Amino acid sequence: MHDDLEKLIGEWRGKMRESLDAQTVEEMEDHLREKVAALCAGGLENKKAFNQAVRELGSAKAVGSEFRKLETRTWLPIKIAVIFQCVAAPLAIAFLIARLRDRPLALLLGVHVFSVTMGYMLALMAGAIAGCFVLRRCFGDFSSTKAARISDQTVLLVAPAAVLTAIGIGLAMIWANLTWGRAWSWDPKEIGATCILWWLICFVACGRSGRVSPHRMMMLAIIGNIVVSCGWFGSNMLMTPSYSPFLKAQLYAVVLVHLLLLAVGMLPAGCLRQNKRGA
Amino acid sequence: MKLDKELVAASSAPLVLSILAEGDSYGYAIIQRVRELSDDQIEWTDGMLYPVLHWLEEKGQIRGRWEKAGAARRRRYYSLAPKGRSALREYREQWEVVANALKRIWRTQHA
Question: ipTM score of the complex?
Answer without folding.
Answer: 0.88
